[in-house]
Amino acid sequence: MRSAEIVITGAEILRGHTLDTNAHWIAGRLRGLGIALRGIRTVGDGEDEIRDALKAAATADLVVISGGLGPTIDDRTRNGVAASFDLPLRIDPEARLGIETAYRRRGRPMPEGAEVQALLPEGALPIANPVGIAPGFRMNRGGELIVALPGVPDELRAMFLTGVEPLLGPRREEPEEVFRFYGVPEAEVDGVARRILAPSDLAALSICAEDGAITLRIPSEVVARTPRLATALAEGRVGQALFARRDLSLAEALVDLAASRGETIATAESCTGGGLAWALTSVPGASRVFERGWIVYANEAKIDLLGIAPELIARHGAVSEPVARGLAEAAARRARATVGVGITGIAGPTGGTPDKPAGLVHIAAHRAGATIVRRAVYSGDRERVRRFAIQSALDLARRSLAGLPA
């Protein structure tokens, strides 16, 4: 396999109702297999749309289709593929047995109409679904391999790993170095690389930003050839922002750092509503460092559960640096943790004032008698403000553990 195209189906994606994450994941897997991705097409649920997308991708060695394999009226991928090949649809006995078995595992019989999911283009081979119900399928068109998988992300990933990747050859990822940062602009990280690397090496870099975190990927041979680069990336403001030298999230990096030092973390959250605790406990092995947290959304909860003084809230407001400090310190004290993290803010879109606009967040991290604080105003909708506040809190806790400034 030398080249591939991805076809994502679903009117809900075209209308903005659903975010496609499958293409991003498939692209990463293909890259590790040494298969060049030529393009990603997103089309609606119509049979003609799917057929036309397949025809347009016909010169690729591999086409991966995601979505449209369920039992509902808008699941027409099998029809589009059959039309592209000018083949009839047939009930595949193996696929039907797999569907029946999947329902039996759930303790119920296969409902009427479910066997439509076993309709495959004549000659197609089913791909078993180890975590869901709808099977996928694969077939050849000349030298081209067509693979159709459900759109549910966990099902697609399991089926790709077990039923598709073994067909594509061994993984042969090019060795690369990964540097992850939080708290500096993307341009600042890029500037360090530009000052050190030759123009020919700069072309091999990949840098991107997501939720405030910067990821820099560099071929290992470039790093080995220019050791000054790794040193420069670990120095100064950029170095303080460096939280991982491999593909770790902020939460994973914080849990690893705390565990390596025998430290524990407690949280007290207002505007993030438990999101910080969720991020930490999403990391395997988080129980090594995280035992408890508080969601103290109302002022009364801050007072009753964590002992925040009513006069402190009256004087400064619930969204303030003193209250964030109080939350962090109380969380550490009451949980007997070495690090306490407090978050209070206005997630919006309502509730803001000229002095305290929507998006304002105060975060504090307390450790060893010292508390560091961070004030930020995040733009965007409620979800974005909360997401950025959680990321920022993870980073502040990391800095507290490392003895770095906020």
Alpha-carbon Rg, integer: 26 Å
Describe the sheet with the most strands: 6 strands, mixed
- CATH topology of the largest domain, what is it called? Molybdenum Cofactor Biosythetic Enzyme, Chain A
CATH level-1 class of the largest domain: Alpha Beta
Query: Strand order within the widest sheet?
Result: 2-1-3-8-7-6
Question: How does CATH name the architecture of the largest domain?
Answer: 3-Layer(aba) Sandwich
Number of strands: 17
Q: Which regions are unreliable across 5 or more consecutive residues at pLDDT < 50?
A: none
Distance between the termini: 49 Å
Write the layout of secondary structure elements.
Layout: E1 3-9, H1 11-14, H2 22-32, E2 36-43, H3 47-56, E3 62-66, H4 77-85, E4 89-91, H5 93-105, E5 119-121, E6 125-127, E7 136-141, E8 144-149, H6 153-164, E9 176-182, H7 186-196, H8 199-202, E10 206-210, E11 213-219, H9 220-225, H10 227-233, H11 236-241, E12 242-244, H12 250-260, E13 265-269, H13 275-281, E14 290-295, H14 299-306, H15 310-316, H16 321-335, E15 339-345, E16 360-367, E17 370-377, H17 382-402
Parallel strand pairs: 1-2, 1-3, 3-8, 13-14, 13-15
Antiparallel strand pairs: 4-5, 6-7, 7-8, 9-11, 9-12, 10-11, 15-16, 16-17
Helix pairs in contact: 3-4, 7-10, 12-17
